[in-house]
Amino acid sequence: MRFKTDLKNIRTFSKLTAALSSLEKIAWVRLDDDSVRFTVIPDTGSQVWASLSVDLIFENYNIQSNEPNNTINLELPLNPLQRALKSAMGSNHANLRLTKRDGIPMLSMTIHTLTKDPAAENNSRHPNPPPRFPRDHDDEYDDPFAQSDLQAELQMRREREKVITQDMPVRVLHPDTVETIMQPKVREPDVHIQLPPLLQLKAISDRFTKLAMTTSASSSSANRAEKTNPKLELSANMHGNLRLRLFTDALDITSVWDNLENPELDPSQLTVPVEQHPSVAFREGGPDKWATVRVDGKDWSRVLSVGRLEGRVIACFVDDHALILYVYVPHHDDPGGVEDVVTYYVSSYSA
Amino acid sequence: MVVLNFTLSEDGVAVLHDALSCMFKFSDDVCLEARKDKLTLSTLNVSKSAYVCFTFAANRFFSRFNFEGNAQYRERFACQLYIKSLLTIFRARGGASDASRENASIERCDVAIDDGVGRKSRLVARISFRNGITASHSLPYEVKAPTHAKFNQQEAENSWAISSKTLRQLMDHFGPGIELLDINTDDENRVVNFTCFTEKVQKRGTTNNEAVLKKPLHTNIAVEMDEFDDVSVEDKMHIIISVKDFRAILQHAQITSGELATSYSNPGRPMKLSYGADGVLCEFILMTVGEKDAISQRHKTPKPNAAAKAATPRPQLDSTSHRASSAQQTQAPPAAKPPQSKMPSGARPPPEFDMRPPPPPPPAAPRSPGLFVSQDDDDDDQQWEPVNPEEQEEEEEEEIVRLEWHTNSEPDPSAPRISSYVRQPTKPDHTTSPDRLLSGLEPTQRLSDVRRFGLFSD
Fold first, then answer.
1. What digits encode the pLDDT tens for the residues A120-157?
2. Of B165, B175, B383, the CB nearest to A199
3. Of B217, B386, B389, Cβ closest to residue A167
4. Domain spanning B150-315, CATH architecture
5. Disulfide engineering: B10 pairs with which of B43, B106, B396, B445, CB 3.0-4.6 Å?
6. Are A82 and B375 inside 8 Å of each other by CB?
7. Pair A211, A253: CB distance under 8 Å
8. Which residues on neighbouring strands pair with residue A293, listed in sequence order?
9. Tens digit of each residue's pLDDT (9 = 90 or more) over B20-65
10. Domain B2-148, what architecture?
């Protein structure tokens, strides 16, 4: 069993890891020839299935396995991975390989990096000094960069590359153990809508959650569980509206977004003819036809932490039943290419 | 009768504060020792595995330094103080705006120690601000001879020196949950390795497979020897020290931005780290983990046999004598016997440096400004953190403020952060507002400005 790869887009990888680790400490990683899949399934709370094409985060990818389809299944703690990726950020070169240390399997990240010198860093931010003009005054022009360039050069001569090795513990999983883990199946959604900027949505959701917990402190301890885990009501229609509502004994607050996009369905992706799709009925039902789910405020906040990936998010509502988020991860180096999808199965509660 | 008095400039106060906050990471109290030519602050941690000593040169560091002495303390005067109270006195003051910082900046700081028969033992610090306010603090202390750790420089044959800034940045790569730092050299590859690991892990092959995944990150950093100023270390020699202590040292060392020099001999023997800045010498003596303790110690040097061990004296702590290493630079007081006379073992059980049991975990107090805990120092990554229910309780007060949807005093509404509210001095507002109302006087100064003059305790 061999796995070795160079890392690229470390920032994206790191942000994905951060988003996943807010839900669960350990991820199941499945590697094969074309894709790398991260799955987190917390005991309670939302689960995530992130399926990425290999070239989003890896290059010079090399995998060899005796298991069917050249697959490697790993159990990987996310905090060490995040920590290691942080080390790798801004490095000259970093790679990742599966190895053993003292007989224990390890995922070893080797990072070639320089220590950040404030002077050198400023310099590296401007690899090409701005053009000097006016050209004719060049001779008496006092180049402000000359001095710092010289200093940086002196620094660089002294500054040697450091080799950092970050070993993360992993567990290799047998195919049988992962065979039973299935991606949830949900029926066609009633409403699909593009979410507003997640930072906005998260700020308001978090405020609602905190409000619910603050007001609960003064009221009776009758339904304490409900108070410490406040539920938010999330609704959407097929006319570009999203509604977030907090309803407790003391409060009833609602935030509504409008002019959001309900993306067109792609008939080739559907199992039913477009006209029979549940969303058609909801669209015809008008703006008052809402699909509603209830989510746990704290869990929802953890889900929304995926906003750091800066991707487009489509929410699919199955009325009173389920909420699924599709987060499209942008490829910064290939904007026109295929987008990778991170799927959130948000745990929801009936009213 | 005044035994000692000295004056510090504004910068001097800041340097003193930095030194004290570094010491505070090791211990709660500090020994102040004054002589004609220098002031020494030293402390030893509870487990006696780390000793810290800052020496301030009388003629270079202070604007004025006068050791009077008296009949009782002719050569030197020593006392013990709580670091926490000193930190409060010498804390940095300064406002958000340049104008208020100018107002609140320290013009001078006079410190005097008053002692003698029939007098109250007090350290009096008087801080004069540029705006004319003077704050006086009076601290009680305990007259007590300091405990100094000894370090045998002759024995310490291994040494290296490197820029403390570089070293400090390397430490950023070490993750949380690690305890020990193994420093070793590899002559073949011309590198010095810094390896972090912990012994608190389950043995291999335990029934609980999950435990394997709970192991912290194992980090190794290889630094080319060329980057060091001088390396003279036995090949494959592994020396192991506590990460926590090392971090505390580096955080202070990087402020002075000097060159950090180390010297040490063998595992289980002390290691000295030192660096100097303008008129200040900072020395640390850390106990290294002995061979028998280090499970993952894999070094190939032959074990020093028992006879050799007996011959070389263990490091001792001595309440009156001085460190052998510093004996040449200080004149030993007549009261203290020469250190050599104490060296032979067997005279009394020496309370030696001991790495085991490890020091108790540091209290998770806000006093250590999260040097290595922060996972995200990214631009604005904080806002993506989920609502933290644990924080909820402590933040109750801030929460209520927060709910006002920042009405006032928020300079930058585009960056609503909890921290910006935490910094608001809410408490003094509550306590002082009734007084103001009773007196019927219009406020002439913002409370937040007055607060910096040390009129309110924190």
1. 444 444 444 433 333 344 444 444 444 555 555 555 54
2. B383
3. B217
4. Box (3.70)
5. B106
6. yes
7. yes
8. A234
9. 999 999 999 999 999 999 999 999 999 889 999 999 999 889 999 9
10. Box (3.70)
